[in-house]
């Protein structure tokens, strides 16, 4: 008992020091196993705020990139739909040429022609009613509304005038935010002049008067003009969509580059230096073993040892 009292103060200090070393060793072993300085923000000290800000910025950047990617997918679908429209307009041109070169139109040929044009009119409208991920792509901001309703579209005849009675959407152009300060507009609505002219050309051909034996020059000129202008307009819109797609791809690449840089910076603040950790752990382990040995020696002493 006398020995324990005599060495109590020194023994307590040695034990306290050993416990601190042991706690630090536990932290170092956890760093070595996880590769991180700390598993929570508290262990990062003054860097915790910077790490939190970086993580928030990375999350926001990923959201911007995801939104731009979704918009890019919609552009691809719209572009594809317009390629189908171009094919239909090319068929219309060929049909007109065939009708003018084939001589007189008998009743059977006329009805076949009108029936085909009515089917193409429906198909063209179906392309304008393209839906992707629950959104009607040519409806402007009214993405839940079918943009083209042919039941509201009166039959067209020569001479005709522009009519968008078929359109049920609005005039809002789709847009997507790709950064805190940048918004990219993209897309087109189904009431664009190119689409209106195409529908009008198909409608004129689908509604030729009964008894028509040939296409008169007025009908021929108007339908061919509308068809060519529609083709030119669709091509122009596709070019614009390509430009919009490139802008989105550029925005995505910029966000991905930022994410890489921010993630690398975050790593410098959170990742442990494994080599340094291993070296410190080895040193502290040696210190801890020495401390345990010293404590054992001190606790084995008695007053009699001091009096010798």
From TrEMBL:
Compartments where found: Secreted; Bacterial flagellum
Family named by the database record: Belongs to the bacterial flagellin family.
Pfam families: Flagellin_C, Flagellin_N
Gene3D superfamilies: f41 fragment of flagellin, N-terminal domain
Source organism superkingdom: Bacteria
SUPFAM superfamilies in the cross-refs: Phase 1 flagellin
Domain Flagellin C-terminal, chain residue ranges per copy: 225-307
Keywords, sorted A to Z: Bacterial flagellum, Cell projection, Cilium, Flagellum, Secreted
InterPro entries associated with the record: Flagellin, Flagellin_C, Flagellin_N
Protein name per its UniProtKB record: Flagellin
Domain Flagellin N-terminal positions: 7-141
Function: Flagellin is the subunit protein which polymerizes to form the filaments of bacterial flagella.
One Gene Ontology CC term in the entry: bacterial-type flagellum
GO molecular function terms listed in the Swiss-Prot or TrEMBL record: structural molecule activity
């Amino acid at each position: 008992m006398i020995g324990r009292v005599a060495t109590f103060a020194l023994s307590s200090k040695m034990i306290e020091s050993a416990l601190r070393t042991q706690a630090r060793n536990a932290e170092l072993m956890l760093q070595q196993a996880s590769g991180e300085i700390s598993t929570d923000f508290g262990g990062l000290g003054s860097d915790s705020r910077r790490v939190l800000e970086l993580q928030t910025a990375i999350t926001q950047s990923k959201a911007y990139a995801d939104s731009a990617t979704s918009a890019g997918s919609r552009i691809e679908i719209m572009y594809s739909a317009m390629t189908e429209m171009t094919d239909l307009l090319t068929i219309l041109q060929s049909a007109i040429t065939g009708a003018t070169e084939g001589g007189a139109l008998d009743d059977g040929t006329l009805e076949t022609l009108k029936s085909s044009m009515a089917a193409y009119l429906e198909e063209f409208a179906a392309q304008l009613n393209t839906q992707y991920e629950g959104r009607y792509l040519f409806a402007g901001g009214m993405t839940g509304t079918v943009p083209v309703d042919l039941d509201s579209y009166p039959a067209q005849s020569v001479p005709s005038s522009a009519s968008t009675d078929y359109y049920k959407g609005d005039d809002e152009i789709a847009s997507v935010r790709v950064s805190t300060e940048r918004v990219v507009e993209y897309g087109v609505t189904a009431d664009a002049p190119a689409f209106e002219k195409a529908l009008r050309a198909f409608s004129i051909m689908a509604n030729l008067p009964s008894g028509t034996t040939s296409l008169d020059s007025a009908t021929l000129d108007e339908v061919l003009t509308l068809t060519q202008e529609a083709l030119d307009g669709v091509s122009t819109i596709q070019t614009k969509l390509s430009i919009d797609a490139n802008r989105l791809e550029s925005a995505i690449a910029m966000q991905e580059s930022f994410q890489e840089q921010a993630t690398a910076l975050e790593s410098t603040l959170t990742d442990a230096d494994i080599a340094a950790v291993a070296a410190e752990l080895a040193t502290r382990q040696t210190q801890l073993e020495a401390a345990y040995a010293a404590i054992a020696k001190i606790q084995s002493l008695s007053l009699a040892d001091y009096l010798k």
